[in-house]
Structures are given as structure tokens and as C-alpha cells.
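Input chain follows. Return C-alpha cells only.
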Amino acid sequence: MLPEIKLQADVDLAAISPLIRGMMLSVAYAEEEGGIGLTATGAMNRKFVHWAAVNFIWPGFTAEDLYSMHKVLNENDVPPLWVVRDMSLHMKFLRRRKGLLLATKRGREFLEKPQRYFDLIAADYLYTYIHDAEREQAVHARLRWWRMFLNLLNIKTREGCTPMEVVKILRPDLEPLTETGMTIEAWNLKHDLQYGVFRRLCWLGLLYEAREGLAIFEDGSFHKAPLWSACLQLESDMQSDIGVH
């Protein structure tokens, strides 16, 4: 059984969760501007993409980060926009009509009471959403491991941990290897943890990555955000360590 996500505290979701903030800003923009313009291929137009880059304040994808790599931004250059668009359409907060994404009545209700929709958004995004570079089979296979992942991270992120530290816990047989050998041997597992687990938890707002002083390819230390304890109750809440079998 998947751990239940149930918001039980009055928190400012827009301040803590990049995903909720991005969805709220997109719906508000569509409402105020008469819609988000779409290109001939159905992508969000450059006007909105630039606006989103400036206003979303998405960790790792701020306007400064994005424009350091691209002179002009298209939707494909801003990965968080794919998730915001997909989840907003899935939740029926936005709808397509005549080359626009328009705010719906349900979307306007979401702007008024985002807490009312958080549990459903969080569960759908964390457990079943398929990112553009992921395979459906991999997302479905991960379902049986989410309880273990969340309980493990519930303990290890109290002081902060990196994806490789979690790899070492899950694969103790790699301990005799050098760091380089371990990286090569555990590449697929580390990649799945980084993008399938840590990224989802960060984009949802349950974790944050401390990256001060790190180079772009270095792993930061992940820590729990206030939203974690506000919506998750886990078996490991009172444990000081966890065994993985």
C-alpha cells in the first residue's frame, strides 16, 4: 500500500511547493490574460515561457539559470513547464480551446483553496506521473518501493543526505568498490533515485536540496521541508535508523 498523503496543517503551499506555485501562477495568468497562448505544435508560447521563467522561481530553473544556457526560451527549454502544463490539464484547472489554455471554474477554485486539492495533486504527481524522459514501466515498477523510500528518507534527511548515500544503503555489496567503481556500477540506481524520487519530492516541496558552493554536476544534500511533516505520517517517524532488506 502506498503511503497516504494528507495535508493536515495550514501551510503556505505557494511558498513551499514549486509545483503548486507553478500551477497557481499559470492558472492565474490564464485567468488574467485571457489564456496562455499556444504555438502551432501545442506548446506554450514564448511570451508565457519568459514570464514563467521570471516568476516561477523554480530551484535550478530560475530565469538566471535558464538564460545562462539559452538566448531565447521555448517550452522545451524549461522542463518544469511540462509538468505544470500536464498536471494543470490533468486536474482540469486549465483546458485547451482555439490555440489557448484557459482557466476553468475548477482552476479558479484551486486558486482560492489550493489546500483542498493538494492531496490529489501530490499523490498523482509523486506516484504515477510519467516525466518526459521516463518509461511508464519504470514508474509502475517503482510503486512497490515508495513506502521503503519514504521511510528511509524520513530518517536520513533529518541531517541531510545525498543520492549516493542512499545508494550505499540500498546496495551494501558495493562498499568494497572505489568511488569511481561504485558510480559506474550503481549508475542506473542513482539516476532513478535522483530523477524518480528526489526530484519528485523536491518539485512537490517535501524536500529541498542544499547546493551552496557546489558545481553544477555535484550532488547537494537533501533535507526535509516543512511540508513533509505537514502531509506525511510514516512508520519511521519515531525511529532513529532504518534497516533495508
